[in-house]
Amino acid sequence: MAADSPEKLSDARSIGQAARAVRRARRMTAQQVATAMHLPLRTYEYFEAGSGRPNLDYVHRFAAATDCDPWALLLAPALGSIEFARRTADSKLMLIFLIALGEFEQSMQERMLALDPRALIEAFTDTFRRLEADSRLREQEAASWLSGARGRFAGRPPEDPS
Fold first, then answer.
1. Is 88 exposed, middle or buried (0-12, 13-18, 19+ CB in 10 A)?
2. Among 6, 40, 101, 128, which is most buried by a count of CB atoms within 10 Å?
């Protein structure tokens, strides 16, 4: 097992590595993020290095500075995936999930006590399988469209306007 595998990292270190992955994907420097977070560069570097305990204020400031999902950063350690935050930075997967969950909780209130875990497993599993299938279908449709469109332009010189 590698020294930096998620199982061996502290939560703060996992969050810091997830933050670094998002920052790099955003092509931002540590100084740019530190400035946007209103932090000294060294303090930001400690955050990204995972020094100390996880700091929720810094996580939310980082998310605002990089336009990413703070909840994905916080869940990276639990999922064992420091890449989760980078992969969901644009879709805001966890933020959307938590908003929907909050609406569900408000609607259900005390009826949540009677929810069957098997029904929850089935509902979430089915939903994620449908999302995966839809994603694959969209990728195939895009690849097919591009393949057909490329043939119309391949090897043709620009037309002479005269």
1. buried
2. 6
* Longest Cα separation, the chain: 76
Rg (C-alpha) for the chain, rounded Å, is: 22
Cα 120 to Cα 62: distance, rounded to the nearest angstrom:
32
Q: Are residues 87 and 20 in the same domain?
A: yes
pTM of the model: 0.80
Burial of 27 (0-12, 13-18, 19+ CB in 10 A): exposed
**CB 5, CB 81: distance < 8 Å:** no
Where residue 35 sits, what CATH number does that domain have? 1.10.260.40
- How many angstroms separate the first and last alpha carbons of the chain? 67
- For residue 60, give both structure tokens: 């939310």
